[in-house]
Structures are given as structure tokens and as C-alpha cells.
Amino acid sequence: MKRDENEQNYKKGPRPVVGKKPNGQSQIKVNISRGVFTRRYSLADGQVASVAYHTPSQSVVFLEGDSAEVWWRIYEAKGDTKSAINYILKNGTFNKNPDAEAKVVLAEFVDLLAVSNLLGQTNGFTRRDATPEKSEMTVKTRVDPTENPELEIGQFMANHHIFYSLALELTYRCNERCVHCYLPTETRLAELSLAQIEAILAEFTALGGLQIQLTGGELFFRKDIVEILKMVKAHGLVTSITSNLTLLDDRILDAIVDLQPRSVGCSIYAATAEMHDAVTTIKGSFDRSVHAIRQLRAAGVPVITKSPLLKTTAPHWRDIERLAKDLDCEYQFDLSITAKNDGGLSPVGHRVEDMSMLQDIFSAGYYKLYNRDEAMFTLTRPSADAGLCGAGASGLCMSPDGAIRPCIGLNIPIGKWPQKKLAEVWQSSPFFSEFGSIRLRDIHECNNCPDFAYCSRCPGAWHAENGDFRKPTPYACQLAHAWATVQRK
Fold it and tell me: Distance between CA 457 and CA 470 in Å, rounded?
């Protein structure tokens, strides 16, 4: 999500001061944890940053300056810290014993990395083994659970227009026929081949990409899905998978476990088979999805139940919450039922419109509400000078046929691969300047709305329903009013 640049003050690393390097400093060997995915970003202004995920524990840290440099040297050397200590010695100031003091700095940093699960066994070395003298230089990572590094990462990438995330729709085919589905009526699009997907992944990572979402349709419909998962792993990408999981088999399960995804999201519409299957219109779909979730959790894969709340299912949302906890899963609710990508309005009749029901959900569970995978609790209170949304700020979406869009929710093609490479779209599409120049004050309904501060606006949903991303839908205004009413009580 894109925010105004002045909303976050970044903690810069200390200015390097050249110090004296001694001979014979002792070495520390650490072990990079399995399931670590990371990238280093070196910017034209000399700024250095690094993002590091440990997907099994759902940990993520954002590092800048010296911290980013030291972490990257440790990672690149596969746990050997010689290069990291050399960097600390070169860029720190020391009192009496540079070797010992640099060791203290590194040891403290290693402890923090271990807390974030980026490092495992450190061959018995901890900060307690180091001498008490310490350099004025510090390297650090954020481990405060009250902070949300994802927001900081997203803002950093948006500020520097780094192509960080990609939503890859592998197919629009699906074995379920959900009553509220937003995909176009015609789902038989041409689909990217394995060789094309490999080329796209290579382009993406070369541009700084780290996060990828694999989705559909039902992506497991593809007979080559195991090969695709192996490709994604080979590119070292932090992967989220969205599926109904009804087609999970042993081959796919093994490939997912080997991939170590950040999460697998599974659509669960109700806590009973009767109600869930009425949404998917496929008998037995609930039992197959729940069985697959249990298999993934038994294998240690993080699973999120994703539950769009419909008119028929919303009264039972607490049962879905209990089911998710029983399955040992994270869970998300979503009230943003949108028109189809091709403008079809059939899904909108399934929206929750009862104000008392909406207020009950917002008052008790709004912190678990999401809008197209964006957590509502992270939404900043916008000013009239804020942009419409973060579409295209740090990522893109690609349709099964190679059409490139600003995000998964905004169905406005801005290029077609391979006629236009990702780099060409990312670096020269007029969309970014045109869309980015629009401010909320330019939207009359928003500028004068008393519930403005509680709007989880989605121009993509507005565009799908109205054919105009500058025109809010009445339902968006209704949700904002429901949330505002609860917050003002």
C-alpha cells in the first residue's frame, strides 16, 4: 500500500568512519536458517537496504545502511562472517581493541538475526562470549512485534519505484463455480507456457523482485504446476499461493513443502459443508479443501483461510473463525465483493448490506478484515492530498495470457508480454505518472465525505462496477459508513 512519503521517518544507518584494521581477528561461523529469502537493494544515491524473510516462522525484517550491508555479507558468504567483520572494522570507530569491539558489534547483530529466525545455530558463539568493549557503530534489525515492517518495505519500494512484487495469474480455469467470482465470464484464455514463465521470472528477479503471488482461477488445474513451483523456488522468491486446494495431491504437496512458501491461502466460505458448497456450487468441495488444509498444516506449511463474506454466510462469520483456529490456520475476512473484471454485475447481489451485521463485523473482527489481500488495520488515515491507492507503486499483475495490469484488482492493461518486457512497462508506462497524479481531493464524493477517514477505497472495484476508477461505488461508501459508525461510538 502506498502512503505519503512523509508518513514514515526511516532510521538511517550511522555514517561510516574509517577505522584501523588489526591482524588476526577471530572468525565467527553462523548458519543461515532454511527458508530464508532475501534481496539487497543498492540505490543511485548510495542508500543500501535489504529485505529478509524467514517463511516458516512468518518473520520479515527490513534493514538499511550498515545493517543491510553486514547482513548481506553474512548471507552471501553462507554464514562465514569474515567479510562482515572486515566491513565493521573498516566503517566503525573503536576505543582500545578494534578486533574485540567489532566482535561485540557482530555478536549483538547475530543475536537479533537469530531472534528473527534468519540464523540458526551459531557454533556456540553469542554476545555473552564477546569482550565488553564496544564500538560506537551499531548494526541492528527490527524485532519489535508492534512494528509492521511490511508497511515500511512497501513504502520504501514505492518511493524508489522498485519492482518488488508480482501477482501471476496462471489460469482462469477453475473446478469450482463460486456465485460471487469476479473473474471474467470467458475463462478459456491462452496461457503462458513453462518457457515463458521461466523468462518472466528471470526478468522479474533481475528488476529486484522478491515477492510473488501465484493464483488463478484454480492454479492447480495446470498439469505443469509442479514444474512451475520448482521454477519459482529456483529464483529464490517469497511465494504466496492462493487456491481452493481441492486438487491437491501428493506431488503438489511435496512441491509446496519444498518451496517453503510464505503462505498458502485457501478459500473457505463457511464452517459447514452445506453452506460452503452452496457458494462453490460443487458438492464435496468443503471436505476436500479442509482435508488439504490439514495435510499442509501437518507438513508445517503456513495456511490462511480466506473468507469473502456473503449475504448468506456473514451471519456465521464467528463459526469460520473457530474453524480456522481448529485447523491451526491464520484467517482473513473480506467484505469487498466486486463486479466481474469484464463488468458483469452478478456478484454484487451477494454483498452484505445489512447495517447491523456490518457494524457487528467491524466492531468485533475488523482487524481481520482484508480488501483484496490488504489488511484494513494497516490503512493509514488518508489526507485529501493522498493518492487513490498503491496500484503499481511497487508491483504488477500478469494475466494468464501475458496482459500486464497495475494490480490484481485494477483491470486496466498497461502492456502485453512478450511484446513489451516487464522492464519496459515498469520504466516507461505513462500509467504511473497519470494515475499517481490523481489525488483524493480530485474525487468530489471523497473530498466531501464525512466518513473519508474510514474508507478502504479500491479504484479497481470502482472501475469494474462503474467503468471509471474515479467514481466510488455506493457499496464502498456504505462500508466506510459502517466502520466509521463503530469507531465513533
Answer: 11
